[in-house]
Amino acid sequence: MPEASAITPPVAFTADELPTWQPNGIVFAMEQANGTVFAGGTFSAVRPPDGAGSGTEQEAVNFVALDAATGNPTSCKLAFTVGDGTATVRTLAVSKDKKTLYAGGYFGAVNGTPVSSLAAIDIETCAPKASFHPSFPATVRALAVTDDTLYVAGDFGTVEGSTRERFAAVDAASGALKPFTANADEPGRAIAVSNDGNNVLLGGDFFSVNGSNTHALAVVNATTGAVAKTYSNIPSNSVVKHIAADATGYYTGNEGSGGGVFDGRIGLDTSFNEKWRDRCLGATQYVLPYDGVLYSSSHAHDCSLENQFPDGKRNFLLAQQTDYKGAAPAPVDGFVPSPPKLGWHPTANDGIGEGIGPRVMSIAEKNDVKYMWVGGEFTLINGEPQQALTRFASTGDVGAPTTPVASAGSVKPGEAQVRWRTSYDQDDSKLTYRIYRNGSATAIATVAADSLEWERPQASWTDTTVKAGQAYTYRVTATDGAGNTSALSANVSVTVPSSVQAYPDKVRADGANLYWRYDDTVSPYVADSSVSGNTSGVQVNAPTLRQSPGAVTGTSTSMGFNGTSQQVYSDHRQNVGTSYSVETWFKTNTTRGGKLIGFGNNTVNSSGSYDKQLYMTNTGRLIFGVYNGSTRTISTGLFETYNDNKWHHVVGTQGPGGMTLYVDGQNKGTNSATNFQPYAGYWHVGGDNLNSWPTRPTSNFFAGSIDETAVYPTALTQAQVKSHFDLAKAPTDTVSKVVASEDTYINQGAPSTAYGTSTQLAVRGTSAYESYLRFTLPAAPNGQVLKAASLQVKTSTQANAGSADTVSVVPVTGTWSGTGTTFNTKPTLGTTPLGSVAGIPDGSAIQNVELDTTAVSAVLGTSYSLGLTSSGTDPLWLWSSESTAADAAPQLILTFGPK
């Protein structure tokens, strides 16, 4: 079989759905043989896939046979009918020699041949075997076949008039009842033969088998049905829906109803002992081990107990390793957690019927390609209409990752941090990211990072080649293993400061592993500006971006929250160590209180476990609290209120010395609590549950502005907290970007032509092109001087727009205008260059030319012109201010700082 393209091993199938004919009802059963897939259920017809453009609906009475490779119906037509009630096919099995298809369910005839809820079909002729007609008076729900025996599970109490309660065995050829007896008190839903053929695994609703207490799962002798192993660790309100096997063991799919259910999967070793348990909630219907991966059909909505996604949206098709590659982790609550989920995530929906979603799976092969087939109740696959049947191939991945959401920042000279929320690819968890600077078509860096649908942590890269006072833009793409590449992210820009920015540098130096500055321009991403924490935030319900001014000096902005529904939560599940600090700035006049920052076990939905939190009461008091069996809190004084619409700084710390609350650099109280309830969760800013906490405010959500949120893995000292508060007022750089108010170029080859309306500028020594740019320069802000100046231009998309020659920036000393200046009337130029760049590569990209700061300082507050010249013969083509291309207009980047 060809290698699966683009798929992150060990996943073997893409998540791209293939065109497949679809029934008009529900598929409950599926099997395959010789490149044909058999599907049974409750339906009356099949129709072409939506948008296929050809084919018409065909009758299909509870059964359809389809070509594994094309998804089209074959010539095999079988009608499963019953005289009274609704016929249905609930299970299918194929003999070891691939010659016989067995079907179970509730039906009385197949193509008119009388049967009793169990039938054998000759696959070659597509005809029921009339000689095979054991009598099962109630629904058959599961089948397992060996060379000579067909094992049956269902609702029946007798077979051929003999007592066989819920489980039985018949001769695979004749249908004659065998001595095997495994009587259960409640329905049988699953059955599988052990790898050595000596035992049979039973699954269902039962609480006893042959008088032995065992709930939902049992192992019996394959010949006699005598009980070999019982189980008592599946909750009484949960059942086993399916059992499957591979060479390393056995797997169960489980479903429950009510509180405390077990809805997930169990892995058993070859001795039938439990090796792991997946406690995700969401009614697992089917498990299918293949090549080291366990694929499953469910509607998993809460994998909190597996330290994966919290209660929320339904995930219908999942994949996970069948075993740990190394040592398994220690048990949690008495159970070894399951192996991790993998990057395979086609989407579905609840669909019709019981609203279960997918119910059954099968792998078929044809022409050296394997296909994962899925059946059930769904009516959508990957957001597109598709009912009851779908399939995915082992080759041909065509789906590109989602577009990264990027951000950039710089807090000190010589360093710019590019951050992005990792992308999501339905069948690739390992993606390659390429970072492009200043519009260049060549990546400046490549970064590999992992992500899953429910866990998309931040990835980052630090550009250490940047220069102080210059502006840079960045874009990021994501590529999967097949080369499918996302669109470029939106442009993000950053100006590198000429001096260290005191406040953010201190937060980073003090070890923050989450630092949200709220300078983001695109929802829903909140960048983490810590050195290496990579814990970004996800916005909920669109908080207001880039509110100004922020809490600290400079151009950094804050985020606004409406007090009713908006919040930000951290991008991945984590545990909090025994020491930590939470810190943020806020400004509000609310009288409804709300949570500023806290830790909780859910994301969008309200958390059930929540503490390590700072919140405001209705009167504006601040409370810091944890839960360690009871709530332990510290609050500001009765008259110490902070809803005065001014910026305030609040920090809560906990460690071996207990808890401390600081406000505006001052210690407001301590207590001796050194521990808290341990659980995995997410940081929340702006809102989450506050139910049952002391002086609970009217609102769980905070109304106001929040800025400079940080979390540390240590308890900050009083000195560190005071330093942060003081540094918020420290002087910082001011950056002015001045776009050219007028520009033009002259051309020696057309000496009387003016180019003031051209969208391009040109520079060359021979024959001459010269470009002129006019800027209205601001005066230096009070108390500041010019620290750095640079000219930013962008090469155009014209072929060979770059130049190998040195281009100089010189003052224009003569007069000129865009509409009137030609080569014949060109202005005089200064002789001392303000800056130069030695060669500019081809390809449209931003270029920065560092300028003489002293010379530019002398002309601040005036109208000032610059000329671009060269002495060579290789022309340079730049966008002019008339161009509409992104970042096209020439501009000066002026960085002012304290004297």
- Count of individual helical segments: 3
Largest sheet: 8 strands, antiparallel
Percentage of β-strand residues: 35-45%
What's the shape? flat
By secondary-structure content and strand pairing, the structural class works out as mainly beta
Round the Cα radius of gyration to an integer and report it.
35 Å
List the helices and strands and how they pair.
Elements: E1 22-23, E2 26-33, E3 36-42, E4 45-47, E5 58-59, E6 63-67, E7 80-81, E8 88-94, E9 100-106, E10 109-110, E11 113-114, E12 118-122, E13 127-128, E14 140-145, E15 149-154, E16 158-159, E17 162-163, E18 167-171, E19 188-193, E20 199-204, E21 208-209, E22 212-213, E23 217-221, E24 227-230, E25 238-246, E26 249-256, E27 265-268, E28 274-278, E29 286-290, E30 293-300, E31 315-321, E32 358-366, E33 369-376, E34 380-381, E35 384-385, E36 389-393, E37 405-412, E38 415-421, E39 430-437, E40 445-450, E41 458-463, E42 471-479, E43 492-495, H1 502-509, E44 514-516, E45 525-526, E46 537-540, E47 544-547, E48 558-562, E49 567-570, E50 580-587, E51 594-600, E52 610-616, E53 622-627, E54 631-635, E55 648-655, E56 658-663, E57 666-671, E58 682-685, E59 703-712, H2 718-727, E60 734-739, E61 742-747, E62 760-763, E63 769-776, E64 784-794, E65 803-811, E66 835-840, E67 846-850, H3 853-857, E68 863-870, E69 876-879, E70 891-898
Antiparallel strand pairs: 1-4, 2-3, 3-6, 4-5, 7-10, 8-9, 9-12, 10-11, 12-13, 14-15, 15-18, 16-17, 19-20, 20-23, 21-22, 23-24, 25-26, 26-27, 27-28, 29-30, 30-31, 32-33, 33-36, 34-35, 37-38, 38-41, 39-40, 39-42, 42-43, 44-59, 45-46, 46-49, 47-48, 48-59, 49-58, 50-55, 50-59, 51-52, 51-58, 52-53, ...
